[in-house]
Write a structure and sequence with these properties.
Mean pLDDT: 82
Low-confidence stretches: 1-17, 467-494
Strand content: 5-15%
Largest sheet: 6 strands, parallel
Distance between the termini: 45 Å
Helix content: 55-70%
Radius of gyration: 28 Å
Structural class: mainly alpha
Number of helices: 29
Strand order of the largest sheet: 3-2-1-4-5-6
Number of strands: 6
Shape: elongated
């Protein structure tokens, strides 16, 4: 028995030391690079394909749109399947589809075969990123990590946006040296390597429960009707967008007819594929999606729009145009990993918006007579945009998405990115409708300036990011962060069941409240939380610390803290100092207990009262962080309550102690949220 325990401990310790060894991360990086590479590598092959197959260059646009369409639908679908069936299984299935797509495309004799190949590649490559995020999140939880694994996310960032930026140069070299078929055939050796690595190094998925692996059971768990409705509506939307500036009314009608019943179905579904309520409540996640879409609109406008302009208006060859954009990918790759290691969000997102604005102004200044160095400079600026937006938004995604929905959320993250990419193609076709010219390029620049301003506003006006970096590493506390604001957001549930939830308002009494930093603001925030919980039908529990004469007499000499209280005859239960602050006074039906130690339940009947009301979820607010909050949290966790701590509803006279507990201790035992997030969780119930 002891030997087995020792082996288990050793394995656990090994995981804790090296949870993200290169053997685990390498197949994820390779797999995650397949979709962006295939998205962009085709750009320089369209003209040669049109010439050999005797079709117009415009007809080959279907090879771009088909992959985008397949990916937009398949990304969140693959994420959902990974959550339900296992990320390793879905990852390997995707690799097989990419291999098949490479073969079909490499041997294709007509545009139809190439289109089928691109659809297969689009579906197959869509599995890698959401599966990688599921695997990373699960590995982090197994290792007990509270902060995002920045270095690993940086590698994913490089594999994602950075490799997309080097797609055109790689495509130009491949097509120029070996012909357009290698834009497809390159997938064969890469997928073979990815498959071998995944089979050997990725952890096996648990064996499915026999009672839940039938078709009906799986279809219900993944919400198959929701997936089909999403696929139909997204397909129609993409076709509509790709047809602009010509309006495809049939596609628009199909979108409406498919979207409306899908939304109704998803709103009624207990565990929906597309959680509209959860997304509405999780503003941080919704803003992350929107920022990603708008920024990729800019990055891909450069990759495609400027490529067309360089070839058609400036006179560069296909290879030359690809090489001029190579610095963009290089800068993106070089910056992604060091930025991600710091787990920053707000800083990189502001940098992304500012550089997007600068680069867009640069586009407006370019002409067909501009030197190559000017074009390279603009691409370098957008390389910074590419790296910073990928790192910032990807880390924000990791933190904002519920862990049990990280696969679907990651897929939707990519879907919104594709919508931005598709919109960039639409804008390009509009500005160049009368031919590729400097005027069209300058119009494109104006559009991108507007998009950059929108991204900047979405960042600087975001209250979740304002005055703090919510994604700072948990092992680097920053005492400059105001008390009541957590540096790490660990929201892990999209809903709270109000009738089974109690907000504990602890030690908010007249003699203690003034000891808290910025006490009035703290009380107002807690007052708002009380109102929200009452309105949702939850329970409010009040805890105060106060002593009778008998309580003082019963304090033993062994109790270091409360011996002094007893000796000084402090905190008498009838004193004004021990009464609850009248601004948040209890109401009829609330729980009110009086304690004589730090913890809320150790010397009271609080646990019994909560049990009698069927409460299994606690939300903690209190003074101080190192006293009643810490003690109550530990006790509640041991009693198997689901515990939330309001980061802006607690305070401590010692700022350093407060921050260390909020950043390093609480997230491993509770979900650290703020009052705004609490309102959202209650509202989505």
């Amino acid at each position: 028995m002891s030997t087995g325990a020792t082996q288990t401990d050793s394995a656990t310790n090994g995981l804790a030391r090296t949870p993200f060894a290169w053997t685990f991360t390498t197949p994820l990086y390779v797999g995650s690079s397949l979709n962006p590479i295939n998205s962009s590598i085709i750009a320089t092959a369209l003209v040669p394909i049109a010439a050999e197959l005797h079709v117009s260059v415009g007809a080959t646009a279907v090879l771009v749109s088909s992959l985008y369409l397949a990916s937009a639908v398949a990304q969140p679908t693959a994420g959902k399947l990974a959550e339900v069936l296992g990320p390793r299984r879905i990852f390997l299935s995707g690799v097989v589809l990419v291999l098949l797509g490479g073969l079909v495309g490499g041997l294709g004799q007509n545009l139809a075969m190439l289109t089928v190949a691109r659809v297969l590649v689009g579906i197959g490559t869509s599995a890698a990123f959401p599966c990688a995020m599921v695997l990373i999140r699960r590995r982090a939880e197994e290792a007990g990590l509270d902060a995002p694994p920045g270095g690993v996310l940086g590698g994913i960032a490089i594999a994602g946006m950075a490799t997309a930026a080097v797609g055109p140069p790689i495509g130009g070299l491949l097509v120029g040296a070996a012909g357009w078929r290698w834009a497809f055939l390159i997938n064969i050796p890469v997928t073979a390597i990815a498959m071998v690595m995944a089979l050997r190094w990725l952890p096996k998925d648990p064996v499915p429960d026999r009672g839940h692996n039938g078709f009906r059971q799986v279809a219900d768990r993944i919400d198959l009707p929701g997936i089909l409705g999403f696929a139909g509506s997204m397909t129609a939307l993409v076709i509509f967008l790709m047809s602009l500036p010509h309006v495809e009314w049939i596609a628009l009608a199909v979108f409406v007819l498919a979207a409306v019943p899908t939304v109704v179905w998803e709103l009624r579904k207990t565990a929906p594929f597309f959680d509209f309520r959860g997304l509405a409540a999780n503003g941080a996640l919704a803003r992350t999606y929107l920022r990603q879409a708008l920024t990729l609109l800019g990055v891909y406008s450069v990759m495609y729009g400027m490529t067309q302009w360089m070839e058609a208006a400036h006179g560069f060859s296909t290879v030359g145009a690809g090489l001029l954009l190579l610095p963009m990918g290089a800068v993106s790759a070089l910056l992604s990993r060091p930025l991600a290691r710091r787990n920053l969000v707000r800083g990189p997102l502001i940098a992304s918006a500012v550089t997007m604005l600068l680069g867009s102004v640069g586009i407006m200044l370019l002409t067909s007579h501009s030197p190559a160095i000017a074009i390279v400079l603009v691409s370098l600026i957008f390389g910074i945009t590419s790296a910073s937006t990928t790192v910032g938004n990807q880390t924000a995604l990791y933190l904002a998405a519920p862990p049990d929905q990280i696969g679907t959320a990651s897929g939707l993250f990519r879907t919104f990115g594709y919508l931005g990419t598709i919109t960039s193609a639409v804008i390009g076709s509009i500005v160049f409708r009368d031919g590729v010219s400097d005027h069209g390029l300058h119009t494109l620049g104006i559009v991108l300036v507007a998009a950059g301003l929108a991204v900047l506003l979405l960042t600087v006006l975001d209250r979740r990011l304002m005055n703090r970096d919510p994604n700072r590493q948990a092992d680097t506390p920053d005492t400059s962060t105001p008390q009541g604001e957590s540096s790490v957001s660990t929201t892990t549930h999209t809903t709270i069941t109000p009738e089974r939830t109690a907000l504990l308002v602890m030690d908010f009494q007249n003699g203690i409240v003034p000891l808290a930093p910025d006490a009035d603001a703290l009380v107002e925030r807690v007052k708002g939380a009380i109102t929200d919980v009452r309105a949702a039908g939850g329970t409010i529990g009040y805890v105060r610390v106060a002593f009778t004469e008998n309580d003082w007499a019963a304090v033993p000499e062994t109790n270091k803290a409360f011996t002094a209280v007893a000796a000084g005859k402090m905190l008498h239960h009838e004193d004004t100092a021990t009464q609850i602050d009248e601004r948040i006074a209890p109401e009829h039906g609330d729980i009110v207990v009086r304690k004589i130690r730090y913890g809320s339940a150790s010397t009271t009947d609080l646990h019994q009262q909560l049990t009698d009301r069927g409460i299994d979820t606690l939300v903690l607010a209190g003074i101080s962080t190192s006293g009643v909050v810490l003690s109550t949290l530990m006790d509640a966790a041991d009693r198997d309550y689901r515990v939330y701590v309001l980061s802006d509803g607690i305070a401590d006279p010692d700022p350093t102690t407060h921050q260390v507990l909020v950043d390093n201790v609480f997230p491993s035992r509770a979900h650290v949220i703020d009052t705004t997030e609490l309102r959202g969780l209650l509202g989505s119930a």
